[in-house]
Design goal:
about 290 residues, alpha/beta, 11 helices, 8 strands, about 35% helix
């Protein structure tokens, strides 16, 4: 078994703030990807009073071998009270920026797009100044569902690429690389002022050249923001780590990404899709666009 290097060791978080966030989440019966996907940054984020809300879960209709979220072929029906409970959490936590993600719900005709819309609208009701980032699944290529989400005007639309095309069959068997790029491209076409974002895991056997090609492909569809982080094996039943990539390589990818035109590249071993996502507000000030919301 490969020994985890020092740069992946996380400091123990402060208990008081974490307890407060967990208390809010338990009280409102909400799921977070921080907990369900065993994120290594859970302590830091909870201690800072932030969380990435996981809707329509916690079980997923896909069983990707890298992911720690539970698989369920027939998950529960959508909860109509979930949007209002999520909005109440945003209010109690006084969030300037909220990230809303979901499990894959391939059992639903719209892939859960209507629930994303309901959550966005509920947050707007309690906090007009909170910027909203949605991290969405591929919706099985239902572009009408994508348009429905974009009409609700989230400031950021994130859809993860996850890995290089060569590894898709092993890492993301129900995903499709070209469909991922198309989703991001259609987002740009349908909503030009929305900031688009994607993320990649490394350490699964990809090469530097393959990562750089994915980065160039993402720029071809005018993706604005990129996150790159180290894959960590959640349990013995998940895909094994092929390599622990050193921090210098992450720095090289960050420099390359900025060189080819990404507005923001967050690249480090512990980076995850929504790690320090609140910093997107700084990006919006630096690279302003017309208001997404009409």
């Amino acid at each position: 078994m490969t020994v985890k290097p020092d740069w992946l060791r996380v400091k123990a978080p402060g208990r008081e703030r974490i307890g407060n966030v967990k208390e809010i989440l338990r009280d409102l019966a909400l799921n977070t990807v921080c907990e369900e996907a065993s994120c290594p940054n859970i302590g830091e984020c909870f201690n800072a009073g932030t969380a990435t809300f996981l809707i329509m879960g916690p079980a997923c209709t896909r069983a990707c071998p890298y992911c720690d979220i539970d698989f369920e072929k027939k998950p529960k029906p959508l909860d109509p009270t979930e949007p209002s409970r999520l909005a109440e959490a945003v209010r109690r936590m006084n969030l300037n920026h909220v990230v809303i993600t979901s499990v894959n719900r391939d059992d639903l005709i719209d892939g859960g797009a209507s629930q994303f819309v309901a959550c966005i609208n509920a947050v707007r009701t309690v906090s007009l100044n909170t910027t909203i980032e949605v991290l969405i699944p591929d919706l099985c290529g239902n572009w009408n569902a994508l348009e429905l989400i974009l009409q609700a005007a989230p400031e950021v639309l994130n859809h993860n690429t996850e890995t290089v095309p060569r590894l898709y069959r092993r890492v993301r068997p129900q995903g499709n690389y070209d469909r991922t790029l198309e989703l991001l491209q259609r987002t740009r076409q349908l909503s030009p002022n929305t900031y688009t974002k994607s993320g990649i895991m490394v350490g699964l056997g990809e090469t530097d050249a393959e990562i750089r090609q994915v980065m160039q492909d993402l720029r071809t569809v005018d993706c604005d923001i990129l996150t790159i982080g180290q894959y960590l094996q959640p349990s013995q039943k998940h895909l094994q780590v092929n390599e622990f990539v050193n921090p210098e390589q992450f720095a090289d990818w960050k420099a390359f990404g900025e060189e080819i035109g990404f507005l923001q590249v967050v690249s480090s071993p512990l980076t995850r899709s929504s790690y320090h996502a609140e910093k997107v507000r700084e990006l919006m000030e630096r690279y302003p666009r017309s208001k997404v919301r009409s």
